[in-house]
Amino acid sequence: MDNTTVHESHSDIEDLFDEEEGERPCYLSDEEHAESVTGAPAVSSSEMEADNVAKLSNLDISDNTQEESQVHEGGSSHEISETTPGHQGEEGGRSNDPKGLELGDGDGSAIATSSTTDVGPESTDSGVLVTDVVDGDTLSEDGIQESPGSPSSSREGTSGYLAGSGSSAASVCSASGVDESADRILNQESTRPTRRSWVPGKRHPDEDDTSLAWRKHKKHFFILSNAGKPIYSRYGDEHKLAGFSATLQAIMSFVENSGDTIRFVKAGDHQIVFLVKGPLYLVAISATEEPDEVIRCQLELLHAQLILILTKGVEKCFVKNSKFDMRPLLGGTDMVFSHLIHGFSWNPATFLRAYTCLPLPYAIRQAAGAALQDMPNTGPLFSLLMCGSKVISLMSPRKSSISPNDILLLSNYVASSDSFRTTESFFPVCLPGYNPTAFLYAYVQYLDSDTCLFLLTADPDGFFQLKECRGRIGTILRQTNVLAEVANAVRRGGLRVEHLLETKASHPVLDPKTSSIFGSDGDHELHGSAGVPREGTIGIGGPAGLWHFIYRSSFLDQYVASEFSSPLHTTSAQKRLYRAYQKLYTSMHGAGAAGPHKMQYRRDERHVLLSWRTSDFELYAAFDPLADKSSAVAVCNRVCQWLRDLESEIFLLGATPFSWCN
Amino acid sequence: MGAWAESVQVCVFDMRRGQQEGHELDKILFFSPLDCPLPTQLSVVGLSEGLITFTRIFSPEKPCQLMQAELHCHIFFNCEPDIWIVMVIEKSKEGEEEVRVAAIEGMLKEAHDLFVMFFGSIRGMLEKHPVGDLARSCLHAFFPDYLAEFMVGKKLRLPSIREGLTERGMVEPVNLDRDTFLHAQSLVGLLESWFGGGTVRHTMLLFHNYLVSSTLSAEDTARLFGYALLRLTPAAISLSNRRIKSASMSAISAAGQSKIRNLLNNGSAASSQGPSSGEEGLERVTKKHPRPLKPDGWWKEVDNFLATDAWESDSREAKALGPTIWLQHSNEQMRLCVFQYRTTTLIILVPTNSSVNGLDGLSLLRGHLLEKGAQKMQKLEERLAKEWKGINASHIAGYRYLCCDRTGKTAKASPPSKVATLSKESLAVLNLVRADIDLEKGRLERQASHHDADLEVCVRTKQNAWLVVRARGGQELYTVQERAGDTLLLASDAVEKLSKRHFNGHFYSD
């Protein structure tokens, strides 16, 4: 990766964060960077890591994982020996060398790793780098141990959890074959000083609870241990927030000591939501008008994301040592959490418990499905083809089920770092909805700039098999023109409310020519060229003042949302609407004596919201505040009819039904 | 059905007191139940204070209002600067969703409003008597009686979903034709003209539990009306089964008395003194100060004036004045005189220093009223009784509703007997929607550009009932229709009709 690439990735990620809440990425000054790299704390933290690794080395995760990890030992080394054909004999020998494994084990490993990275980011000694690789892989054998290899990178503030996901980054590069791979590692190493100046994921790292600016952030998230040790904070430096964490812990423990569990606190526009997950405390402090149920779900997702990285086995560390410091284990994964938290403000999948598909012609999606289906019996447990946060196709050859939240968390994990875009990766990952106690192994590669393939297996040695599968899938997808169609679909964008107007005005709804979002003969007339709506449709919204809608299919656990169009063109207007949807969804799904509602109409000075819930679907629509009630109802009916006509293009039909594990 | 709390604790504490370690008990001004062990009391206050301090980090203007835990719920009411009333409710298994926080806040607010009406502000008392004994003893003379209003057996009945179409702190006016209204006005005018004017400073006239007229400000009207409903209306008097008896201590359990005494001793640690000496302490408390909410504290004399022994006091001055209240609007203390003819209650407020030719103004007034006003009062009562359409007068077929005017502090609602016909599910949805609108209103109130909510919410429940709420210009209309048809438009039109016919079209939509 050269410097240019690095800079590009900066700007990409920068765009992800909206300005409203001051979510701009932060840049450390060189002085600060120097401190963080060469200062004494680095040494002490490496000692701490070594200590943790030593403790973790005795950790049992699950029988399954242990077995896998035993197998994996050979697998990882094999992987490396295979990955660099140029140096196959030499490097394969190295990694198989018991000494190499020893290096990757326990205290020695961690110290060696950190010293490697601390001392010599500019080092071009391939031997050292291979040690690094071996270290990562060896640690990953025991799922949880894979992360301790990462703190070196997190402390550096380099490519975030790139190295934190461990082995992934390492094996990634080495796995991409040819001599280049080693060069790429070297390049990455050599570019580290540049990347270090950027701290991924962390916003306002210099702030703490004494600063006014920190207090004014609209939404804080904290993860801490039940002993009060900070694990993650969205804003500010966890170390500086130790006192604040202790206060949170004191409040929670005080209530817990009385045999109760604190759930939430309300104070003016702020609410504090608490979630206790075994030895972990998760807390959100928010002034965002979201219902506490929604924030609680977000904390659940945050916890699930943590489990995705570490499995529930991490809880055992706290059983052994209540003062266990978990931060080194998560080293560098700030970006994953901040990316997920950012998703809480724009991604309906975070509250709908459903995923969305990229609109594609039916035949193309069928072809994609067929490509994923065409696997040996011993192949992946799940195959998933995604475009950004949208699913193209999903297959589970063994009829296992993957929950929408797992899809969300997995895609978030991958999307939160640019490193996945450039290389193939094979890394342990836990799907909390599938089995929160064990790791699966994910093979991830971007097939082009938009399309990402996920193959998941329980076999830690499955890298080469999945690599082969990927090759075959990639070929079929190219041959069947799927990738080109995906690119078209991305360019074209999603459904637009304006098209409902056109549909009504010029054609009967059931006209076959307009019952496809792709128009007749595959032209993209309805969308104008390059996905830009035609002149005249901008700014007017849909009929009867329709601004936006979300439609969720109950059977498919999938949703489709229209694109934002004027007057919802500002981020703040979109976010406001998004939060109104969250609130509406929560009230429509009420529990207890009130039960769920069938329909709801809500008008305030900002908009009219209409929601309609049947056993088949849920529709949430936003209108101009002056919209006429009867016209709005009529338009909602037309939207439903329109979507039913488009069903085969906007939904993935025939996917394995989900089972709800969480 | 109702929200029954397994147990309820109420605490009034002052965050400015007991700052030093070991003096925490000095913070506590009142704690119910009175026999609650001191460590528990300190634990409640400690947690409450901790939460208030913590939430001030993020929300300095409006700190902690509510803490929900799995088994408990703490509701905070910041009644005066740094003085808090906290209610701790142990949730019953099925009752959780039935409690609406704003309704309980309303209850705490009402308690404080009434307290201030009779005793003045707590902070004022603490400033006059920094030791805190005055404030403590007044709170102890007031709060147990207030809470007893909600006690059924040993349990406290909280505002529940059954009260979804009521609003605490509001006045329900009676509908009058013009002539009757003029009769009422004429009576009020006559009273105010006596003794050259000024003796009768304010009057409030009630028919059954409805307001006929009031010359007080909206806030003071609402407070006095609230008190009248508890103790002065014919319905409240009929519950009083006593004539003249000595003060009863039944409301306060003997077990808690030693704790009160300890609190009175400036928060010193619990002593081992027995209940007999504690009783003396309690005697001291209750004798010293009026108990305006004393059960059976008011009764009707043969001359149709209401009499009370609730204001028996150690203070000669207070005893001589009899029942008095403080008006919030003018910050004046007034003597209270109540005359009740059948279903009509006339409350007269006379300045405490009122005298006519050196004679007690109130005594003269009573004579005058019997001589010259009773007949007019009798006529008015007859007109009102004739005009009144019964307890279901406010019923509108097909609707269950509540209409509140926040500015005028008035409310009109379906009769409780009709609201009781609603299904539990409709009431639960109503409760949720009301809670949502409470939040919305709270948010708007805190905004710099304070404006009233303007919104409409229509919900079709899973049993096909329709709940329509409209809020505009400080007024809110809540309606439940269980047979409104299948569509949003039908339900909405029905509310449109209701608005046009009964609320001057104030809640028009579209």
Describe this structure in words.
The complex is a heterodimer of chains A (662) and B (510). Chain A has 662 residues and is an alpha+beta fold. Chain A has 4 domains: 3-199, no CATH class; 212-346, Beta-Lactamase (2-Layer Sandwich); 355-490, Beta-Lactamase, CATH 3.30.450.30; 493-650, Beta-Lactamase. Chain A is 47% helix and 15% strand. In chain A, helix 3 (40-56) runs antiparallel to helix 7 and helix 15 (292-310) packs antiparallel against helix 17. The two termini of chain A are 39 Å apart. Chain B is of the alpha+beta class and 510 residues long. Chain B folds into 3 domains: 3-163, Beta-Lactamase; 178-245 and 296-387, Beta-Lactamase (2-Layer Sandwich), CATH 3.30.450; 400-502, Beta-Lactamase (2-Layer Sandwich). Chain B contains 14 helices and 22 strands. Chain B is globular and about 65 Å long. Mean pLDDT of chain B is 85; it is low at 243-286. The interface between A and B is large, with 44 and 55 residues.
Largest protein interface, residues of each chain: A-B, 44 and 55 residues
Strand neighbour order, sheet with most strands of chain B: 3-2-6-5-4
Record the strand order, biggest sheet of chain A.
Answer: 8-15-14-18-17-16
The level 1 CATH classification of the largest domain in chain B is: Alpha Beta
Mean pLDDT rating of chain A: 70
Low-pLDDT stretches of chain B: 243-286
- In round numbers, the mean pLDDT of chain B is 85
**Cα-to-Cα separation, first versus last residue of chain A:** 39 Å
Q: What is the rounded distance between the termini of chain B?
A: 38 Å
Number of helices of chain A: 26
Beta-strand share of residues of chain A: 5-15%
Q: Which residues of chain A form runs of ≥5 with pLDDT under 50? A: 1-200, 504-514, 520-538, 657-662
The main sheet of chain A comes to:
6 strands, mixed
- The number of distinct β-strands of chain A equals 18
Counted beta strands of chain B: 22
Q: In DSSP terms, counting alpha (H) and pi (I) runs of 4 or more, how many helices of chain B?
A: 14
Oligomer: heterodimer
What global shape of chain B is seen? globular
Alpha-beta content class of chain B: alpha+beta
Query: Which percent range fits the helix content of chain A?
Result: 40-55%
Q: Based on helices, strands and strand pairing, what is the structural class of chain A?
A: alpha+beta
